[in-house]
Amino acid sequence: DSVGANALLAGMAREVNAAVIFTSEHSDKTQGSVQEMRRATEMMVLAEGRPYPKDLGIDLLVIKEKRRRREPPVRYDSVVPVAPMPREITYDPCGNFRIGIEGDEIVAVIKGRAYRGTSWADLFHTIQENGDVSLLDHAAYLGAELFKAELAIRFGRSFEQDGPF
Questions:
Q1: Region 65-75: what's the mean pLDDT?
Q2: 80 within a domain of the structure (yes/no)
């Protein structure tokens, strides 16, 4: 795909000291190629003097679709302006969760009780059913963090609660 092709092209261009590299974003598969090429050329510059571009602090991991789905437009009558999220945190009276991953399972711990599972939706539903979340903003946060933990397992990545994916 385009990520690998751009990395190879950037490596070859670096070897011959090319000043300009051309890449196209003509199809769905190549959307983002310009940014991929920029990242690949940065990697090649950082890899100068090394046998291969490894442990540079940047990577080329990209999740792409072969073909973008063409979804029908969403219909609505009015637009509600979005306000920034308040800086102050209101803690849920039910308590706070510590979320992590163990092997291929998501673990959510509250007050010494652990919820374990492989599906963020199943975990969230069980937590709701047991009354361990009472505030909507806490529920939204919890759902987002559980989903992020599931993605980390699916893609073999580490997970840090409140951290970037």
A1: 82
A2: no
Say if 93 falls within a structural domain: no
| φ, ψ for residue 107, nearest 5 deg | -125, 125
Could you read off the pLDDT of 2-45 as tens digits, one per residue? 778 888 888 889 889 888 988 888 877 777 888 888 888 888 88
Pairing of strands 113-117, 105-110: antiparallel
Instruction: For residues 46 and 104, state if they share a domain.
Output: no
DSSP the chain: -HHHHHHHHHHHHHHTT-S-------SGGGTTHHHHHHHHHHHHHHTTTSSS--S-S--------SS---PPPPP-S--PPPPPPPSSPPPPTT---EEEEETTEEEEEETTEEEEES-HHHHHHHHHHTT----HHHHHHHHHHHHHHHHHHHTT----TTS--
Q: How far apart are CA 162 and CA 106, in angstroms?
A: 15
- pTM across the whole model: 0.65
